[in-house]
């Protein structure tokens, strides 16, 4: 294992021994999610966000600072912000209004959500631009049967007034297609939000592959599609008791550790 790579760090940012162990664990997992998003080519220069809600009634969030590439993010250089988007820990960088609007709105309205992930990829853009949205043509897509909300594009989300409409569009669903824009997944944990994003983004790529064949398509029955979310979420052949996302994300963190452990700094 390599520990030679150094993460970008800033002076005056508190290190792990100054931070509550629960927060530090969340920082390490969130930093891992950014590195893995980079690994899977889901990043967009310095744009887009993955956010974590810290335990407690204050609704404080961990989020990426605007200006860092996902492969530069590490546990100690993540921002800690309040509900208004202000930095709570001294940091030379800030988040952006767009990040705070989408993620802040959802975290505020749905306190049970621990992590929100948002990506744009070519396949996601293609499906987000299709009138029909995500079609139930394979198992990956059927994971999202009746669990996907849709939100109409209002331009780059810079206005605070869009927050209420984002929340209304999401309703009580865990996942959302931002039309002509990108994908949103949520989870109780970083591992859940990340692992569902893996399947949602893959479902978009699969849909493009299926439609590009130009052949007649076999559409599974509605009854079959309805069964898949529960089958998928509760699949636990070794009776570990782990919820979906935990074993998957732990395996991906081990992959990351074999490549570059600097996200843990
Ligand atoms: Zn976006």
What labels would you give this structure?
binds zinc ion; globular; alpha+beta; 8 helices; L-fuculose-1-phosphate Aldolase; seven-stranded mixed beta sheet; 265 residues; 7 strands
Largest sheet: 7 strands, mixed
Q: What is the CATH class name?
A: Alpha Beta
Look at the structure and name the CATH superfamily: Class II aldolase/adducin N-terminal domain
Terminal-residue CA separation? 15 Å
Architecture (CATH level 2) name: 3-Layer(aba) Sandwich
Structural class: alpha+beta
Helix content: 25-40%
Strand order of the largest sheet: 3-2-1-4-7-6-5
CATH fold category name: L-fuculose-1-phosphate Aldolase
Mean pLDDT: 92
Shape: globular
The run of helices and strands is HEEEHEHHEHEEHHH
Low-confidence residue ranges: none
Looking at the chains present, what oligomeric state does this protein adopt?
single chain
As for the number of domains, it is: 1
Bound molecule kinds, no repeats: zinc ion
Approximate strand percentage:
5-15%
Number of helices: 8
Query: Using DSSP, what is the number of strands?
Result: 7
Radius of gyration: 18 Å
Give your account of this protein's structure.
The protein is of the alpha+beta class and 265 residues long. The protein has a single domain, classed as 3-Layer(aba) Sandwich (L-fuculose-1-phosphate Aldolase), CATH 3.40.225. Helix content is 39%, strand content 11%. The protein contains eight helices and seven strands, in the order H-E-E-E-H-E-H-H-E-H-E-E-H-H-H. It has a seven-stranded mixed sheet, sandwiched between helices. Helix 2 crosses helix 5 and helix 6 packs across helix 8. The longest helix is centred in the last third of the chain and has 23 residues. The chain is globular, with a radius of gyration of 18 Å. The mean pLDDT is 92. The site of zinc ion has 5 residues, from loops. Zinc ion (ZN) binds next to loops.
